[in-house]
Design a protein that fits this description.
heterodimer; A: 18 helices; 7% strand; elongated; B: three-stranded antiparallel sheet; 4 helices
Amino acid sequence: MKISAEHVEERLKLLGGLMYSAKGIGAWCFDKNQHLLYSTYPYSKDLVKSPYTKEILRDIIEDPQTMSEPGIWTDELNLVWIAEKAVQDVEGTYMVIVVGPFLFQKQLKEHLIKKLTSLHLSLSTSMHYSRIFESMPVVSHDFARAIFHMLHYIIYDEFLPKNAIHFKELKNPKQTKEEGQVKENADDKLQLHINDFAGMEELEKRLLDNIREGTRPKKEGEKRVFTNDSIQEFLLPDELRTLKDNMIIFLDHCTSAAVEGGVPLQTAKEIESREIHKLELAHTINHAANANWNAYLAFIDAVRHEQSIQNQGISKPVRETMNFIRANFQEEITLADMAKRMHYTEYYLSRKFSKETGMKIQDYLKHVRIEMSKVMLVTSHKSIDQIAEEVCFKSRSHFDHTFKKLEGMTPIQYRNNPRASKI
Amino acid sequence: MKLKGNSSMSDFLERIAECAHDVYFETKEGDRLNLKSTLSKFIFTTSLENADYFTDGKVICEDVNDYSILSDYLEKDT
C-alpha cells in the first residue's frame, strides 16, 4: 500500500502528539538518506548525532521487513526504538517513521543516570545529559506492543495480526565493551537481558498458544520459565509488586487465549479472578511464580475440558454447570448454588446433569477437586494437608479416602509415582 | 594532542577500538571522557555542534604507543 507524503505528515503529527502527551515519547520522520525531516522529541538534536541512533537508522533502512511492518530495536545504550517505513506513492520513495526513544525498565534508566554521575564531567555537561536521561520515558512491554500496532495503523490505516511483534537485533553491534571496560561490564548483562525480553515475547506467544489449544506442558522443567532468575534481576525495588503486576497482565492474555480456545467468557473470567486472588496472597517471589504457573495450567485445563465436553454433545446448561464447578471448585458450592445460577430447580439440574454425563453433580465436583489436587501434588511442594484444604476437603482423612477411591492410591503415593495411578 | 579539525568523528572512534588502552578526551570545561566507554562516546558525539568543544579539547592516551594508531586524526604538538 502506498501513501502520500502529506498523509504521513498529518498522521505523524497526530501520532507524535499522542505519544508525547501519553508518555513523553518522541516521533521522528527521516528520509531514506537518514536526514531528519522533523521530530517531536525535545532532545532530537542530541540524539540524531549519536552513533547508536545512526546505527539503528541504518539497520531500519536496510531491513526489508520494515517496508510492511514495524520493528523494535534496542541501541547500545539500551534505548528502545520502534520504526517502520512509510512507502510513498512516488516510486522508490519512502520515509522512515520512528517512535522513541524509551526504556523498558526503570532500573536501566537509573543505571544510565548512575553511570553519568560516575563520569568525570563538567557541571554544564552533566546537567544537560542528566536532563536527557531523567526525561527518558519508561514503558511496559504491553505499551510497546500498543505502539507497534498503532504505528502501523497510523501510517497505513490497517490492523496487524493481534500477536504480531518483531524484535530486531543490530546487524553489526560494535564491540566497544571489552578491553578496559571494567566499569561497563554491567552493560553486557543489561544488553543480554534486553534480548531476554525479546525472547520472552516469543515465549509468551507459545504459552498462549498452549492455552488456546489445550496443550499441557510435557515436562516439569518447563515450569522454570516462570521462575527465570534473569528476569527477576530486573525488578524494581518493590520487586514482588512489579512481578505481580506483570503476572496480572499475563493472566489477562491467558483469559483471552482461553476464550479463543473455546472456554466461555464468564468461566475464563472466573478463573482469572480466582488466580489473581491467589497471586495477590503470595508473599514471596517464588510463591508468586508458582501461582502464575498454576494459573497457566488452570487455563489449559479449562480449554481441554471445554474441548472434551463439546465432543460429547453435552447441552449448554450442563456444560456451564461443569465450567462453573471447574472455576469455583475451591469454594463451598452446593447444588442449590448451581441450580439458581442455571435458573433450574435442583431436581431438574441434577437429573439432567446425571443423564448427560453419567455422573452426579456432587461426584463431578469431587472428581474435579481430585484432578486439581493431582496437579498440585506433582507441581508444588505443598503439604498434603495444605492441598486438601485448598481443594476444599473438610479434613485430611476425607481427602485421603476420596483420593484413594478415585485414583487407587493415596496422595503421597501419587506424588511419589504419578504414573502408577489407575486413571 | 588536539583533534584535527576535519577529522571524521565516526572513523576516529572506530580507530580508537584498535588502541590497546583507554583513550580520553579532555575539555577546557572539565569533561574527561573515556572514548572507549559507550556512554562517553554518546556524550562526545552529541557535543559535535559545539566547535570549541573539539578545538579546545585534547586527546590523551593512557599508553603513549596508542598515539601512533590515532596519528591520522591528531595534530602534532608544537
